[in-house]
């Protein structure tokens, strides 16, 4: 009886059909210009000629040495805790993307169900499930980078114009893939981008183009601030510690002098 009464009360408070239609018809404004990836692309695997379980994968000698060092940090019964860094190693060895056979290999290496590895690989956005370019360009467009310096929008537009592709796409020569990302934690050096494992900070449209040109030529471009300053130090004159600091006892009451 009480359940029927509750149902009648809820129905009597329902939104009128016309009002609901107006609400559904309102446009939704997105904060990012890059097309969103559908959930089936994130969580559903479909075999392709480049990505299926029949393609062999194993760590080469260099990466196996690093993998053994990482696994040794954990007690034998908890070595599956190494799954995140091992997936990162596999992605790094495999040209910045993580195929199905690499996940299966790590599952065998850590003696854990393959499904547990899939769960990790599909949860974290740092794992690329599809092939990307040799240089994976992640342009931060979160608020600090949007407001810092020339602004991340100018940097993103410069990258897209120089490479001839929009964010979310790869250049025809397979050298560069460009995406928009959320905060990468270098807000004091905004705007910035991450390319593979390196941060390039304090960017302008001109300096990011120079970085891309250098990478395309095969040069080792120095990461970090591109405006000449040291890490996150003031870029002009001193703004803190402008006077000599006083030593112990000075300006203290006599009891503590």
UniProtKB/TrEMBL annotation:
[2Fe-2S] cluster binds at residues 140, 145, 183, 187. It holds the Pfam family 2Fe-2S_thioredx. GO terms for biological process: mitochondrial electron transport, NADH to ubiquinone. GO terms for molecular function: 2 iron, 2 sulfur cluster binding; metal ion binding; NADH dehydrogenase (ubiquinone) activity; oxidoreductase activity. Keywords: 2Fe-2S, Iron, Iron-sulfur, Metal-binding, NAD, Translocase. Residues 219-247 are annotated as: Disordered. Its cofactor is [2Fe-2S] cluster. SUPFAM superfamilies: Thioredoxin-like (SSF52833). Binds 1 [2Fe-2S] cluster. One of its GO terms (cellular component) is membrane protein complex. Belongs to the complex I 24 kDa subunit family. This is Nadh dehydrogenase flavoprotein 2.
